[in-house]
Amino acid sequence: MFDSATLLNQIESHLAATLCDGNHWEGHLSSSALATATAGFALDWAGTPDDQPLARSAADWLIAHQNADGGWGDTLVSNSNLSATLLAFSFLDRRTNPRPPAVCLDKARLCLKRFTGEDSPAARIQAVLDCYGRDRTFAVPILTQSALAGGLGTDNPWAFFPALPFEAGLIPRRFYRAINLPVVSYALPALLALGLCHAQQYPSRNPFLRTLRRLARPRALQLLARLQPASGGFLEAIPLTAFVLMALKGAGAEAHPVVRKGLEFLRTTRRDDGSWPIDTNLATWLTSLTVAAGTTGKTPPAAILTDHQPALTQWLLKNQWKQVHPFTLASPGGWAWTDRPGGVPDADDTAAAVIALCRLAPDSPETRPALIQGIRWLFQLQNADGGIPTFCTGWQNLPFDRSAADLTAHALRALALAWPVLPPSERRRGLDFTSRAFHFLRMTQRREGYWVPLWFGHPDHPRGQNPVYGTSRVLLALAAVPPNLQPGIADLRQRGRAWLISTTNRDGGWGWSPGGTSGCEETALAVEALAIDGHADSRAAIIQGRDRLLGFFKEGQSPSPQPIGFYFASLWYYEDLYPWLFSWAALRAAQSFLDTTTPRG
User: Fold this and answer.
1) Domain 4-28+281-596's class?
2) CB-CB contact of 338 with 284 (8 Å)
3) Cα–Cα distance between 242 and 538 in angstroms, integer?
């Protein structure tokens, strides 16, 4: 009989098989057409002759995975979009040895015409700029690759899309948030490299600005070298690194050491099938989520966690940032999403690591100072609106730098778990932090009762949102905060709970929003949240959701992961471990809830 106990054993066996070095989980990110197109082009454009086989295999992979409509999406199960299609086409169209099949290029042109309205460089430029609005973080790199590849016409295309002001990147970074840069806080390498490229390809007519940029160029290249991590990959991100490399070649700096190190990063992150993911891995994030999932509920922690508890603890402690981060100037004490040197400390991963360490070894003399420092790091990140952003406090100019409900909720959960180890001074700060965070959650709860997250969504939602993810994360936080810190939040919980119950599908699962097709990830997130929230009215929905989860895994099958994750600039991804981890937490929470409550009536 396939029941919850059987599935829990199956999940633990899967996690045991995917454990790396006995101390962490690395997971497996979806291959990305966009990452493959940018990496392939960078190797073809800025690489050595030895890189040509890698560029050719990237082209072969893209040709083999072209969608039926002629375009490409962010993942292999994603619909075609303008960005991925334009980047793939610009790379393939310049290939001559061998030339891609004409049918592939013709279908891609037709797909682009459907996105842009007409097959012209001007239409392509305008469509990309319209797609990203005020945020130039991704729009300018996409247009830069297209221009370098000759895909924006033979006339000077650089005159028709904005230059990134690389000279502004040399201003002391404490002033960045005051000058409203057109890129997000984590995109400094793109600002520098792409600005240098544009200045080289289309010098300003203003003699003062030309002189300023000529004088600023050496300093910009020096700063890029200082920002580049030991791995060579900026943020461990394949597209960002590739954009920097192709831009430096376009700026006449192809011999710079940044290019050499970046090319080596692309070579080492390529997969055997010729593709690239968007990032090297999410190892820290996945390890923290695994620990949290395997300790959810009132039953003892999963055996795999107790067996590896010392190693997991040491691995997480080792990956806490011990110095000021060169990108964001973040203080020591945070965690990034990866154990690789290109990661950047952020709110979600810091909160997740604090929760994991609280579950693994809260009383350890070694763990306690790390927890205190992690909580202080989160305190420093709180914005004036009471919410928590991703990387930097005070940056509110562009969407991915703003406060977010899911990040704020995660920080509240971390604070609640770490509360017993905090000294009195930090508890006083925690009271103020909690009050302001609750205010933010009140302000961001929608009239219907749900919350919208920042870094997760669903491609089928009209606005790419995933209210089930956001609401489930906030409910977990509200349930975790001690009762004496909860004045006035009962209404938030009730409305969030009622909305989540009301959005249950007929099959017992949840989709991204009311009426959305049930997905394993959303169903698991909702079940966990309702079970931890612990209200008797949720019992029927929890049972139905648990049974729907069993259906996703029935008879030895494993669910296909969905592209519910956002990467930088709304780039979708999926992670193979998400269905397993979310379901593990849900089943353990449901079991605890059902064992300690009785049916109503």
Assistant:
1) mainly alpha
2) yes
3) 48
